[in-house]
Amino acid sequence: MSTDPEQSTGAPRGVADLRPLERRREQRAWSWYDWANSAFYTSVLTVLFAPYMITVAGRAAGCPDPDETCSRTVSLLGLDLAAGSLPAYLTTFATIASAFVLPVVGAFVDGSAHKKRHMAGFAWAGALAGSLLFFMEGDDWQLGAVAVVAASILGGCSLVSYYAILVDISTVEERDRVSSRGWAWGYLGGGLLLLLNLVVVLGHDAFGIGTELAVRLSMLSAALWWAGFTIVPFVRLRDHQPSPEAPSREGSLVQRSFGQLWTTMRELRGYPMTMTFLIAYLFYNDGIQTVIASASTYGSKQLGLSQTVLIATILMIQFVAFGGALLFGRLASTHGAYRCLLWGTVGWMAIVVAAIALPAGDVGLFVLTGAAIAVVMGGTQALSRSFFSLLIPRGREGEYFALYNAAERGTSWFGTLLFGLVFQLTGSYRPAIFALLVFFLLGFLVLLRLDPRRGIEEAGNTVPASLLRRSAA
Questions:
Q1: Fewer CB within a 10 Å sphere, N or C end of the chain?
Q2: CATH fold of 27-67+80-236+257-472, please?
């Protein structure tokens, strides 16, 4: 049975079919949400929040020097936690909470004709929570803790609806291009706001404000950016009726919240290729996230590079990833997303091997490695989203994308744990970086076991022509 939006309804004979134009308009509007939310993830969750939270919590713990590594503790829910570890603990808590919340959101989205409203509602609630970070000052870290956890969970909820909309507005032939354009647009928006925020933070004296106020204003700007640009897809996207294949949901909210994840995982056994891809994705995505998280540590501690070089490299990665996402989207149109994902994981393995040989103090090679990371990062993340959409049974997009997000968040700490353990055992970041090779290798090997055509057909979806061409070849 066909599941393409283009084929689901017929155009009247003798009348021009305007559906492709309507889809293209919605696809452009859809991309704006990547632009909107990526700025918050890049500026706040990746760069600004953790060091500022450590400073504020450290002050509450009795560590007045913001440059001091604070091992003193603060109390959270009866637990004594090191101020320096607080951001990591908050991220872990938000991750675990999301694993329970996202599946019920996905199940709800599948039966709704108003996905864009859910996306925007969760986004605006998340942005409101994120804006409260502006009021985290002095030693009042508790407000910031609540705000960042709420913003992270609500942001994940909005993405479940956002990803599900992708299936409504694109055919299988368009999916890779649309997803790649969204990721590219997100990198561009995130990079642009991060650039502006770094100008404010690093040049705060020129604006007549202190460092902490500059950071708080920058975090507020990310929340406002997120909320403001969400208006574009909310206004321009249409509501789409839920698929007739969407299952009915019964039981209490508690049953649906805590039972839906396990129900979906149990039903995955009927879609072995979908499960195979999820396992592969868990491995290589964990490697991607760990490389991103550890790159600045490796550059500063192992290679002795300055903070200026690291900041410039982070910005460069954002803008080069824009091109990488578009490049992989174009390659997928002729070679298929599956083959491009295999190439991408091989590229990640080559980067990890090259990274251990980088000489200390060599800025040029470090920046070149960062550019290579940007190209494969943009491509693999964009195509993972679009390829997975082909492996989802029709009418179950929200449910399965919730599992996709929950699984990603729930295991994304394995790589950082391995990185930390290897460093602790060896005292060097070079073997710690090299150890990450195992995640990309395992992801590659599991991908090789995947039959993409079988998986797409088992899910009841149309096989893209690019995949059929490669199979015939």
A1: C
A2: Growth Hormone; Chain: A; (1.20.1250)
